[in-house]
Amino acid sequence: MFPMRFPFSVVILVVLASLTFSVAADQTLGTDGLKITKSRELAVNFLQTSQAEGGHWSSAEAPGITGLAIYALLVNGVPTTDAAVEKGLRLLSSYLQPDGGIYFPRSYHSNYETAICLLAFHAANKNGQYSAMIKNADEFLRKRQWDDSEMTDVSDPKYGGAGYGRGGDRPDLSNTVFFLEALLAGGAKQDDPAVQKALLFLSRCQNLETEHNTTVHASKVNDGGFFYTPAAGGNSQAGNTPNGGLRSYGSMTYAGLKSMIHAGLTADDPRVMAAVGWITQFYSVRENPGLDQQGLYYYYQMFAKALSAMGTDVVIDASGKSHNWRSELAEQLMSRQQENGAWVNKTDRWYEGNPDLATAYALIALHYCSEKLPHWKLANPFSSGRITFVFRSRLSWPETRETMWTAVPWCAPSTPMRGDTSRDQICRGTENPDVADGYVRPHENLWRLLTLGVNGVSNR
Asked: What does the domain layout of the chain look like in residue ranges?
Protein backbone atom coordinates (compact mmCIF):
# COMPACT_ATOMS: atom_id res chain seq x y z
CA MET A 1 0.00 0.00 0.00
CA PHE A 2 1.38 3.38 -1.01
CA PRO A 3 -0.26 6.44 0.60
CA MET A 4 -0.80 9.68 -1.27
CA ARG A 5 2.18 12.01 -1.32
CA PHE A 6 1.70 15.42 0.24
CA PRO A 7 3.54 18.69 -0.56
CA PHE A 8 6.55 19.80 1.39
CA SER A 9 5.99 21.68 4.60
CA VAL A 10 7.06 25.31 4.53
CA VAL A 11 8.01 25.28 8.19
CA ILE A 12 11.76 25.15 8.66
CA LEU A 13 13.45 24.39 11.95
CA VAL A 14 17.22 24.31 12.01
CA VAL A 15 18.88 23.50 15.31
CA LEU A 16 22.56 24.29 15.35
CA ALA A 17 24.76 22.62 17.94
CA SER A 18 28.46 22.17 17.27
CA LEU A 19 27.67 22.61 13.60
CA THR A 20 25.30 19.67 13.31
CA PHE A 21 21.84 20.07 11.82
CA SER A 22 18.41 18.77 12.64
CA VAL A 23 15.89 19.72 9.96
CA ALA A 24 12.20 19.22 10.62
CA ALA A 25 10.91 20.57 7.34
CA ASP A 26 9.96 17.28 5.69
CA GLN A 27 9.22 14.05 7.45
CA THR A 28 9.77 11.96 4.32
CA LEU A 29 13.44 11.51 5.21
CA GLY A 30 14.17 10.89 8.84
CA THR A 31 17.81 10.01 8.28
CA ASP A 32 20.27 12.82 8.92
CA GLY A 33 20.99 14.34 5.52
CA LEU A 34 24.57 15.08 6.47
CA LYS A 35 25.21 11.39 7.11
CA ILE A 36 23.87 10.49 3.69
CA THR A 37 25.92 13.19 2.03
CA LYS A 38 29.06 12.04 3.82
CA SER A 39 28.37 8.47 2.74
CA ARG A 40 27.97 9.55 -0.87
CA GLU A 41 31.16 11.58 -0.69
CA LEU A 42 33.10 8.60 0.65
CA ALA A 43 31.73 6.40 -2.13
CA VAL A 44 32.60 8.98 -4.77
CA ASN A 45 36.12 9.26 -3.40
CA PHE A 46 36.47 5.49 -3.51
CA LEU A 47 35.45 5.29 -7.17
CA GLN A 48 37.69 8.19 -8.09
CA THR A 49 40.69 6.46 -6.53
CA SER A 50 39.90 2.89 -7.63
CA GLN A 51 39.85 3.83 -11.32
CA ALA A 52 42.71 2.30 -13.28
CA GLU A 53 45.19 4.49 -15.10
CA GLY A 54 43.63 3.53 -18.42
CA GLY A 55 40.27 4.96 -17.35
CA HIS A 56 38.43 1.72 -16.59
CA TRP A 57 37.11 0.18 -13.43
CA SER A 58 37.90 -3.50 -12.78
CA SER A 59 38.71 -4.50 -16.36
CA ALA A 60 39.29 -2.79 -19.69
CA GLU A 61 37.28 -5.64 -21.21
CA ALA A 62 34.19 -4.88 -19.10
CA PRO A 63 32.84 -1.48 -20.16
CA GLY A 64 29.58 -2.28 -18.37
CA ILE A 65 31.22 -1.82 -14.97
CA THR A 66 32.99 1.34 -16.13
CA GLY A 67 29.73 2.71 -17.52
CA LEU A 68 27.90 2.04 -14.25
CA ALA A 69 30.68 3.72 -12.24
CA ILE A 70 30.57 6.83 -14.42
CA TYR A 71 26.77 6.93 -14.33
CA ALA A 72 26.81 6.62 -10.53
CA LEU A 73 29.28 9.49 -10.24
CA LEU A 74 27.34 11.75 -12.58
CA VAL A 75 23.89 11.25 -11.04
CA ASN A 76 25.43 12.03 -7.66
CA GLY A 77 26.56 15.45 -8.78
CA VAL A 78 30.12 14.83 -9.88
CA PRO A 79 30.74 17.20 -12.81
CA THR A 80 31.75 16.00 -16.26
CA THR A 81 34.97 17.97 -15.81
CA ASP A 82 36.04 15.67 -12.98
CA ALA A 83 39.28 13.91 -13.93
CA ALA A 84 37.95 10.39 -13.32
CA VAL A 85 34.75 11.08 -15.27
CA GLU A 86 36.63 12.63 -18.19
CA LYS A 87 39.06 9.73 -18.36
CA GLY A 88 36.26 7.18 -18.13
CA LEU A 89 34.18 8.85 -20.83
CA ARG A 90 37.18 8.93 -23.17
CA LEU A 91 37.65 5.21 -22.64
CA LEU A 92 33.96 4.45 -23.24
CA SER A 93 34.12 6.49 -26.45
CA SER A 94 36.87 4.18 -27.66
CA TYR A 95 34.44 1.23 -27.49
CA LEU A 96 32.17 2.74 -30.13
CA GLN A 97 31.72 0.18 -32.90
CA PRO A 98 30.82 0.64 -36.60
CA ASP A 99 27.34 -0.80 -35.94
CA GLY A 100 26.62 1.97 -33.42
CA GLY A 101 27.00 -0.23 -30.35
CA ILE A 102 29.33 0.68 -27.49
CA TYR A 103 30.97 -2.53 -26.33
CA PHE A 104 34.22 -4.43 -26.08
CA PRO A 105 34.85 -5.97 -29.53
CA ARG A 106 34.97 -9.58 -28.32
CA SER A 107 32.18 -9.14 -25.81
CA TYR A 108 29.27 -11.52 -25.37
CA HIS A 109 27.36 -8.67 -23.72
CA SER A 110 27.08 -6.09 -26.49
CA ASN A 111 23.45 -5.19 -25.72
CA TYR A 112 24.03 -4.86 -21.98
CA GLU A 113 27.22 -2.83 -22.39
CA THR A 114 25.67 -0.53 -24.98
CA ALA A 115 22.63 0.16 -22.78
CA ILE A 116 24.79 0.99 -19.76
CA CYS A 117 27.16 3.16 -21.79
CA LEU A 118 24.23 5.02 -23.35
CA LEU A 119 22.99 5.88 -19.85
CA ALA A 120 26.43 7.17 -18.89
CA PHE A 121 26.74 9.32 -22.02
CA HIS A 122 23.19 10.61 -21.56
CA ALA A 123 24.04 11.71 -18.01
CA ALA A 124 27.12 13.50 -19.37
CA ASN A 125 25.42 15.01 -22.42
CA LYS A 126 24.95 18.53 -21.07
CA ASN A 127 26.01 20.33 -24.23
CA GLY A 128 24.89 17.81 -26.83
CA GLN A 129 28.41 16.56 -27.49
CA TYR A 130 27.30 12.93 -27.22
CA SER A 131 23.96 13.23 -29.01
CA ALA A 132 25.09 11.51 -32.20
CA MET A 133 26.65 8.65 -30.26
CA ILE A 134 23.46 8.23 -28.20
CA LYS A 135 21.34 8.18 -31.35
CA ASN A 136 23.50 5.49 -32.97
CA ALA A 137 23.52 3.40 -29.81
CA ASP A 138 19.73 3.70 -29.61
CA GLU A 139 19.42 2.38 -33.17
CA PHE A 140 21.80 -0.47 -32.35
CA LEU A 141 19.68 -1.53 -29.36
CA ARG A 142 16.42 -1.36 -31.28
CA LYS A 143 17.75 -3.73 -33.93
CA ARG A 144 18.49 -6.34 -31.28
CA GLN A 145 15.14 -6.42 -29.58
CA TRP A 146 13.38 -9.75 -30.08
CA ASP A 147 10.50 -8.88 -32.42
CA ASP A 148 9.27 -9.41 -35.98
CA SER A 149 12.63 -8.35 -37.39
CA GLU A 150 14.16 -11.30 -35.52
CA MET A 151 11.52 -13.63 -37.01
CA THR A 152 9.94 -13.83 -33.56
CA ASP A 153 6.16 -14.14 -33.47
CA VAL A 154 4.23 -12.01 -30.98
CA SER A 155 3.01 -15.19 -29.27
CA ASP A 156 6.58 -16.26 -28.47
CA PRO A 157 7.56 -15.54 -24.82
CA LYS A 158 10.77 -13.96 -26.15
CA TYR A 159 8.88 -11.27 -28.03
CA GLY A 160 9.77 -7.71 -27.00
CA GLY A 161 12.63 -8.70 -24.74
CA ALA A 162 16.37 -7.98 -24.87
CA GLY A 163 19.25 -10.25 -23.94
CA TYR A 164 22.96 -9.84 -23.35
CA GLY A 165 23.67 -9.77 -27.06
CA ARG A 166 25.50 -12.92 -28.01
CA GLY A 167 24.24 -15.09 -30.85
CA GLY A 168 21.43 -17.47 -29.93
CA ASP A 169 20.84 -15.56 -26.70
CA ARG A 170 17.52 -15.46 -24.88
CA PRO A 171 15.99 -12.26 -23.54
CA ASP A 172 15.64 -11.69 -19.82
CA LEU A 173 14.04 -9.13 -17.55
CA SER A 174 17.28 -7.59 -16.26
CA ASN A 175 18.64 -6.82 -19.72
CA THR A 176 15.23 -5.64 -20.89
CA VAL A 177 15.07 -3.21 -17.97
CA PHE A 178 18.40 -1.63 -18.94
CA PHE A 179 17.37 -1.70 -22.61
CA LEU A 180 14.16 0.16 -21.81
CA GLU A 181 15.91 2.65 -19.55
CA ALA A 182 18.40 3.36 -22.32
CA LEU A 183 15.66 3.87 -24.95
CA LEU A 184 13.84 6.34 -22.71
CA ALA A 185 17.10 8.18 -22.01
CA GLY A 186 17.63 8.33 -25.76
CA GLY A 187 14.30 10.12 -26.19
CA ALA A 188 11.77 7.33 -26.73
CA LYS A 189 8.19 8.07 -25.70
CA GLN A 190 5.91 5.69 -23.86
CA ASP A 191 3.91 4.95 -27.02
CA ASP A 192 7.06 4.05 -28.95
CA PRO A 193 6.55 0.59 -30.54
CA ALA A 194 9.81 -0.68 -29.03
CA VAL A 195 8.68 0.43 -25.57
CA GLN A 196 5.30 -1.25 -25.94
CA LYS A 197 6.91 -4.45 -27.19
CA ALA A 198 9.15 -4.41 -24.13
CA LEU A 199 6.07 -3.91 -21.96
CA LEU A 200 4.58 -7.11 -23.36
CA PHE A 201 7.74 -9.01 -22.43
CA LEU A 202 7.68 -7.43 -18.95
CA SER A 203 4.09 -8.60 -18.51
CA ARG A 204 5.13 -12.15 -19.36
CA CYS A 205 7.85 -12.00 -16.68
CA GLN A 206 5.18 -11.43 -14.03
CA ASN A 207 3.50 -14.15 -12.03
CA LEU A 208 0.07 -12.88 -12.98
CA GLU A 209 -2.35 -14.37 -15.46
CA THR A 210 -3.92 -11.57 -17.52
CA GLU A 211 -4.82 -10.86 -21.11
CA HIS A 212 -1.20 -9.72 -21.46
CA ASN A 213 0.23 -12.93 -20.05
CA THR A 214 -1.15 -16.30 -21.06
CA THR A 215 2.17 -18.14 -20.93
CA VAL A 216 2.43 -21.58 -19.37
CA HIS A 217 3.84 -20.12 -16.14
CA ALA A 218 1.35 -17.28 -15.72
CA SER A 219 -1.04 -18.94 -13.26
CA LYS A 220 1.25 -21.37 -11.44
CA VAL A 221 2.37 -18.87 -8.77
CA ASN A 222 0.13 -15.89 -9.51
CA ASP A 223 1.44 -13.71 -6.66
CA GLY A 224 2.15 -10.58 -8.73
CA GLY A 225 5.92 -10.77 -8.39
CA PHE A 226 8.44 -11.10 -11.23
CA PHE A 227 11.04 -13.66 -12.29
CA TYR A 228 14.03 -13.66 -14.62
CA THR A 229 12.62 -14.82 -17.97
CA PRO A 230 9.71 -16.71 -19.50
CA ALA A 231 11.82 -17.53 -22.59
CA ALA A 232 13.43 -20.85 -23.47
CA GLY A 233 11.33 -22.74 -20.97
CA GLY A 234 11.50 -20.02 -18.33
CA ASN A 235 13.90 -19.37 -15.48
CA SER A 236 13.84 -17.89 -12.00
CA GLN A 237 17.04 -17.33 -10.03
CA ALA A 238 14.93 -18.12 -6.96
CA GLY A 239 14.06 -21.59 -8.31
CA ASN A 240 10.82 -23.36 -9.08
CA THR A 241 7.73 -24.16 -7.05
CA PRO A 242 6.61 -27.81 -6.69
CA ASN A 243 4.06 -27.32 -9.49
CA GLY A 244 6.74 -26.02 -11.88
CA GLY A 245 6.07 -22.33 -11.32
CA LEU A 246 8.85 -19.75 -11.42
CA ARG A 247 9.34 -18.16 -8.02
CA SER A 248 9.10 -14.38 -7.74
CA TYR A 249 11.94 -12.49 -6.09
CA GLY A 250 12.75 -8.96 -5.02
CA SER A 251 15.21 -7.54 -7.53
CA MET A 252 13.19 -8.63 -10.54
CA THR A 253 9.91 -7.48 -9.00
CA TYR A 254 11.17 -3.96 -8.38
CA ALA A 255 12.84 -3.95 -11.80
CA GLY A 256 9.59 -5.03 -13.46
CA LEU A 257 7.49 -2.50 -11.57
CA LYS A 258 9.86 0.36 -12.37
CA SER A 259 9.87 -0.50 -16.05
CA MET A 260 6.09 -0.88 -16.28
CA ILE A 261 5.68 2.61 -14.83
CA HIS A 262 8.25 4.02 -17.24
CA ALA A 263 6.39 2.32 -20.08
CA GLY A 264 3.22 4.19 -19.14
CA LEU A 265 1.24 1.97 -16.79
CA THR A 266 -0.59 3.76 -13.99
CA ALA A 267 -1.23 2.83 -10.39
CA ASP A 268 -4.67 1.40 -11.14
CA ASP A 269 -3.41 -1.07 -13.74
CA PRO A 270 -3.87 -4.64 -12.43
CA ARG A 271 -0.23 -5.46 -13.21
CA VAL A 272 1.02 -2.54 -11.14
CA MET A 273 -1.42 -3.28 -8.34
CA ALA A 274 -0.31 -6.90 -8.21
CA ALA A 275 3.37 -5.93 -8.09
CA VAL A 276 2.68 -3.44 -5.31
CA GLY A 277 0.83 -6.16 -3.43
CA TRP A 278 3.89 -8.43 -3.65
CA ILE A 279 6.16 -5.61 -2.45
CA THR A 280 4.01 -4.83 0.57
CA GLN A 281 4.03 -8.51 1.51
CA PHE A 282 7.79 -8.98 1.16
CA TYR A 283 9.13 -5.48 1.88
CA SER A 284 12.74 -5.59 3.08
CA VAL A 285 15.95 -3.55 3.08
CA ARG A 286 17.92 -6.33 4.79
CA GLU A 287 17.78 -8.87 1.99
CA ASN A 288 16.83 -9.40 -1.62
CA PRO A 289 13.53 -11.20 -0.94
CA GLY A 290 13.67 -14.70 -2.33
CA LEU A 291 17.45 -14.64 -2.73
CA ASP A 292 18.61 -13.47 0.72
CA GLN A 293 22.00 -11.70 0.20
CA GLN A 294 22.49 -12.69 -3.44
CA GLY A 295 22.40 -9.72 -5.80
CA LEU A 296 21.76 -7.40 -2.86
CA TYR A 297 23.23 -4.19 -4.26
CA TYR A 298 21.59 -4.65 -7.64
CA TYR A 299 18.39 -5.09 -5.63
CA TYR A 300 18.99 -1.88 -3.69
CA GLN A 301 19.27 0.28 -6.80
CA MET A 302 16.20 -1.32 -8.40
CA PHE A 303 14.28 -0.93 -5.12
CA ALA A 304 15.13 2.79 -5.02
CA LYS A 305 14.40 3.42 -8.69
CA ALA A 306 11.04 1.67 -8.55
CA LEU A 307 9.73 3.39 -5.43
CA SER A 308 10.94 6.75 -6.73
CA ALA A 309 9.13 6.11 -10.02
CA MET A 310 5.99 5.29 -8.03
CA GLY A 311 6.21 8.72 -6.41
CA THR A 312 5.73 7.24 -2.96
CA ASP A 313 7.50 8.24 0.22
CA VAL A 314 6.11 5.57 2.55
CA VAL A 315 5.42 1.88 2.02
CA ILE A 316 2.85 0.25 4.29
CA ASP A 317 3.62 -3.44 4.55
CA ALA A 318 1.18 -6.31 4.89
CA SER A 319 1.17 -6.00 8.69
CA GLY A 320 0.19 -2.33 8.47
CA LYS A 321 3.60 -0.96 9.46
CA SER A 322 4.73 2.20 7.67
CA HIS A 323 8.22 2.34 6.19
CA ASN A 324 10.03 5.51 5.18
CA TRP A 325 11.86 3.62 2.48
CA ARG A 326 14.45 6.31 1.74
CA SER A 327 15.49 6.56 5.37
CA GLU A 328 15.52 2.80 5.92
CA LEU A 329 17.46 2.08 2.75
CA ALA A 330 19.99 4.83 3.46
CA GLU A 331 20.55 3.56 7.01
CA GLN A 332 21.02 0.01 5.74
CA LEU A 333 23.47 1.10 3.07
CA MET A 334 25.48 3.24 5.46
CA SER A 335 25.68 0.39 7.97
CA ARG A 336 27.22 -1.82 5.27
CA GLN A 337 29.69 0.74 3.88
CA GLN A 338 33.37 0.05 4.48
CA GLU A 339 35.77 2.62 5.91
CA ASN A 340 37.26 3.26 2.47
CA GLY A 341 33.82 4.22 1.13
CA ALA A 342 33.22 1.01 -0.81
CA TRP A 343 30.60 -1.70 -0.56
CA VAL A 344 31.29 -5.41 -1.11
CA ASN A 345 28.81 -8.26 -1.04
CA LYS A 346 30.31 -11.21 0.82
CA THR A 347 27.79 -13.39 -1.01
CA ASP A 348 29.69 -13.00 -4.25
CA ARG A 349 27.21 -13.76 -6.98
CA TRP A 350 26.84 -11.72 -10.16
CA TYR A 351 30.19 -10.01 -9.45
CA GLU A 352 28.98 -8.18 -6.35
CA GLY A 353 32.15 -9.24 -4.56
CA ASN A 354 33.72 -6.64 -6.86
CA PRO A 355 33.80 -3.35 -4.89
CA ASP A 356 33.65 -1.21 -8.04
CA LEU A 357 30.37 -2.76 -9.15
CA ALA A 358 28.78 -3.00 -5.70
CA THR A 359 29.74 0.61 -4.93
CA ALA A 360 28.30 1.87 -8.19
CA TYR A 361 24.99 0.14 -7.42
CA ALA A 362 24.95 1.46 -3.85
CA LEU A 363 25.79 5.01 -4.91
CA ILE A 364 22.94 4.99 -7.45
CA ALA A 365 20.59 3.85 -4.68
CA LEU A 366 21.81 6.63 -2.36
CA HIS A 367 21.09 9.14 -5.09
CA TYR A 368 17.41 8.22 -4.88
CA CYS A 369 17.53 8.22 -1.08
CA SER A 370 18.70 11.84 -1.29
CA GLU A 371 15.77 13.07 -3.40
CA LYS A 372 13.84 14.20 -0.34
CA LEU A 373 16.57 15.78 1.74
CA PRO A 374 14.42 18.68 3.01
CA HIS A 375 15.29 22.01 1.47
CA TRP A 376 18.82 20.99 0.52
CA LYS A 377 20.58 20.45 -2.75
CA LEU A 378 24.21 19.58 -3.40
CA ALA A 379 26.19 22.16 -5.33
CA ASN A 380 29.15 20.40 -6.96
CA PRO A 381 30.00 18.84 -3.61
CA PHE A 382 32.81 16.79 -5.07
CA SER A 383 34.64 19.63 -6.80
CA SER A 384 36.84 20.05 -3.72
CA GLY A 385 37.72 18.23 -0.55
CA ARG A 386 34.72 19.67 1.28
CA ILE A 387 30.97 19.18 1.26
CA THR A 388 29.01 22.19 0.06
CA PHE A 389 25.29 22.60 0.58
CA VAL A 390 22.84 24.87 -1.13
CA PHE A 391 19.86 25.91 0.94
CA ARG A 392 16.67 26.62 -0.93
CA SER A 393 13.64 28.31 0.54
CA ARG A 394 10.36 26.93 -0.82
CA LEU A 395 8.35 29.83 0.54
CA SER A 396 6.52 32.16 -1.81
CA TRP A 397 7.65 35.73 -1.39
CA PRO A 398 5.75 38.95 -2.03
CA GLU A 399 8.62 40.06 -4.24
CA THR A 400 9.39 38.53 -7.61
CA ARG A 401 12.03 36.30 -5.98
CA GLU A 402 10.15 33.07 -5.29
CA THR A 403 13.30 31.12 -4.39
CA MET A 404 16.61 32.22 -2.98
CA TRP A 405 19.75 30.21 -2.60
CA THR A 406 22.57 30.29 -0.10
CA ALA A 407 25.65 28.13 -0.29
CA VAL A 408 26.93 26.80 3.01
CA PRO A 409 30.26 24.94 3.28
CA TRP A 410 30.51 22.31 5.99
CA CYS A 411 33.57 22.90 8.15
CA ALA A 412 34.92 22.13 11.58
CA PRO A 413 33.53 24.33 14.38
CA SER A 414 36.80 26.17 14.95
CA THR A 415 38.03 26.42 11.39
CA PRO A 416 37.27 29.38 9.11
CA MET A 417 37.10 27.96 5.61
CA ARG A 418 37.62 29.60 2.29
CA GLY A 419 34.73 28.87 -0.06
CA ASP A 420 35.24 26.76 -3.14
CA THR A 421 34.54 27.93 -6.69
CA SER A 422 30.91 26.87 -6.77
CA ARG A 423 30.19 28.60 -3.46
CA ASP A 424 31.96 31.76 -4.55
CA GLN A 425 30.03 31.85 -7.82
CA ILE A 426 26.69 31.51 -6.08
CA CYS A 427 27.51 34.00 -3.33
CA ARG A 428 29.14 36.63 -5.52
CA GLY A 429 27.36 39.91 -5.01
CA THR A 430 25.75 38.92 -1.74
CA GLU A 431 25.08 41.60 0.82
CA ASN A 432 26.15 39.28 3.62
CA PRO A 433 29.74 40.08 4.72
CA ASP A 434 30.24 36.57 6.08
CA VAL A 435 30.41 35.13 2.59
CA ALA A 436 31.55 38.12 0.57
CA ASP A 437 35.19 37.55 1.44
CA GLY A 438 35.04 33.82 0.79
CA TYR A 439 34.96 32.87 4.46
CA VAL A 440 32.19 31.53 6.62
CA ARG A 441 32.68 32.04 10.32
CA PRO A 442 31.12 29.15 12.25
CA HIS A 443 28.33 28.89 14.82
CA GLU A 444 26.12 31.98 14.88
CA ASN A 445 27.08 33.18 11.41
CA LEU A 446 26.40 29.78 9.92
CA TRP A 447 22.94 30.00 11.47
CA ARG A 448 22.49 33.39 9.81
CA LEU A 449 23.43 31.92 6.44
CA LEU A 450 21.00 29.04 6.82
CA THR A 451 18.14 31.44 7.55
CA LEU A 452 18.82 33.88 4.71
CA GLY A 453 16.06 32.38 2.61
CA VAL A 454 13.59 32.70 5.47
CA ASN A 455 14.24 36.15 6.88
CA GLY A 456 14.25 37.87 3.53
CA VAL A 457 17.88 39.02 3.39
CA SER A 458 18.66 39.29 -0.29
CA ASN A 459 21.11 36.91 -1.94
CA ARG A 460 21.17 38.52 -5.35
From this structure: 1-26+374-460, 33-372
Contact 228, 252 (CB under 8 A): yes
pTM of the shown model: 0.78
* Dihedral sign from CA coordinates of 123, 124, 127, 128: negative
What digits encode the pLDDT tens for the residues 415-450?
Answer: 333 333 333 333 333 333 333 333 333 333 333 333
Rounded-to-5 percentages of helix, strand, coil across the chain: 40, 10, 50
C-alpha 172/C-alpha 193 separation (Å) is 19
Output the CA angle 291-214-167, nearest 5 degrees. Answer: 65
CATH of 33-372, one of 1.50.10.20, 3.40.630.30, 3.40.50.2300, 3.90.650.10: 1.50.10.20
Q: What is the DSSP string of 397-445?
A: -SSS----EEEEE---TT--EE--HHHHHHHTT-S-HHHHTSEE-STHH
The three-class DSSP label of residue 377 is strand
The rounded Cα 105 to chain-centroid distance in angstroms is 28
As a whole number of angstroms, the distance between CA 100 and CA 139 comes to: 7
